[in-house]
């Protein structure tokens, strides 16, 4: 059975993420979407909220499972018998940091291959950071995010405005 892990913070999941997972689900028997706790970031949504959103966004994919994790992607992959890490590339600007991460993962787990999937051109500009920024200003983000994320962002920013 070919198993892959797709780690990321997914704060929140974009249509670009959904596209990458959908494409990976056609290449692998099982794909684990690994929602990371990154202490270097201050997420808008908790890990549990991000997992729930990702599950709603990916529920149409029967061979995809979403799970939160703490720690190294290589460790998560090993614990879930994954032989590949999936990484999405939006542009050439992503390559240096992704290359360094792939080399570190290879050093940590030589049996683990990193596979890069190029973002669909329709989503190359989509990032979670940009999505949050635009949504916080009240703009329509339907071209960037799946409906469950749009609903969650609207509710979160409405609550933040209300509570000040």
Would you kindly provide a written description of the structure presented here, covering whatever features stand out?
With 164 residues, the chain is of the alpha/beta class. 44% of the residues lie in helices and 20% in strands. Strands 3-2-1-4-5 form a 5-stranded parallel beta sheet, sandwiched between helices. Helix 4 (95-108) links the parallel strand 4 (84-89) and strand 5 (113-118). The longest helix is centred in the C-terminal third of the chain and has 17 residues, at 147-163. The radius of gyration is 16 Å and the shape is globular. 35% of the residues are buried.
Can you give me a brief rundown of this structure?
With 164 residues, the chain is an alpha/beta fold. The chain has six helices and five strands. The longest helix has 17 residues, at 147-163.
Task: Set out the fold topology.
Blueprint: E1 3-8, H1 15-27, E2 30-37, H2 47-58, E3 64-70, H3 73-79, E4 84-89, H4 95-108, E5 113-118, H5 128-136, H6 147-163
Parallel strand pairs: 1-2, 1-4, 2-3, 4-5
The string of secondary-structure elements, in order, is EHEHEHEHEHH
Number of helices: 6
* Termini Cα gap: 50 Å
Number of strands: 5
Oligomeric status: single chain
Helical content (DSSP H or I, runs of 4+): 40-55%
Mean residue pLDDT = 94
The secondary structure category is alpha/beta
Bulk shape: globular
Low-confidence stretches: none
Largest sheet: 5 strands, parallel
Question: What percent strand?
Answer: 15-25%
| Strand order in the sheet with the most strands | 3-2-1-4-5
> How big is the Rg?
16 Å
